[in-house]
Design a protein that fits this description.
It is a single chain. The radius of gyration is 17 Å and the shape is globular. The chain has a single domain, classed as Formyl transferase, N-terminal domain (Rossmann fold), CATH 3.40.50.170. It is 40% helix and 22% strand. The protein is built from 6 helices and 7 strands. Helix 1 packs across helix 6 and helix 5 packs across helix 6. The chain has 200 residues and is α/β, with parallel strands linked by helices.
Length: 200
């Protein structure tokens, strides 16, 4: 199994780092050494360099972004693409060609508080404003619409009466790394099992 991580332009890359470290340590039974980023000059790429990952730079606004992304995934024989801080919809041809092999993490318990514009502190503030007693994170399959893919794994945490968006975000982030690692492990187990059955 080979895993790649697609990062966005703003995040620090903490989920990326967690996934790559889990591959290195053997917690995830896959090779994770490719990071795809929109620019060299972002914090996530600096962390990827520290982890000695291979880095491919493709900007989503490039008219050939979808073709170039698929070419890299094919050339590197990537089995699973994990989004970490990537906020845009992927081109339809990428989603179709990699159907069932793209995962994303969302900082809420989907299907609530997902969709276009629901990211970062907006999500946590919406959870607080709604008076929810719990929140968490969801790893889901990517589709052609924001946050509508089947949920693979969720983890939950309480929402405290005195929470701000920032304090809730910190609590959810503590779960995200373990949830993403757990979801990837689950995906690998499912595909290994399916592969064995197909060979019978």
């Amino acid at each position: 199994m080979k895993l790649a991580v697609l990062v966005g332009s703003k995040g620090r890359g903490s989920n990326m780092t967690a996934l790559l470290n889990a591959c290195k340590s053997g917690r995830i039974s896959a090779s994770g050494s490719l990071v795809i980023a929109p620019s060299e000059n972002i914090p996530a790429v600096g962390n990827a360099h520290d982890l000695r990952a291979d880095i491919a730079i493709i900007h989503p606004s490039d008219p050939h972004f979808g073709e170039d992304l698929l070419a890299i995934l094919d050339a590197e024989r990537i089995d699973l693409l994990c989004l970490a801080g990537y906020m845009r919809l992927l081109p339809k041809d990428v989603v179709r060609d990699f159907e069932g092999r793209i995962l994303n993490i969302h900082p809420a318990l989907l299907p609530k508080y997902g969709g276009k514009g629901m990211y970062g502190m907006r999500v946590h503030q919406a959870v607080i404003d709604a008076g929810e007693k719990e929140s968490g994170c969801s790893v889901h399959y990517l589709t052609e619409k924001y946050d509508e893919g089947e949920v693979l794994l969720q983890m939950k945490c309480p929402v405290h009466p005195d929470d701000t968006a920032e304090t809730l975000a910190a609590r959810v982030l503590e779960l995200e790394h373990e949830c993403y690692i757990g979801a990837v492990r689950k995906w690998i187990r499912q595909h290994i099992y399916a592969g064995r059955n197909a060979s019978l």
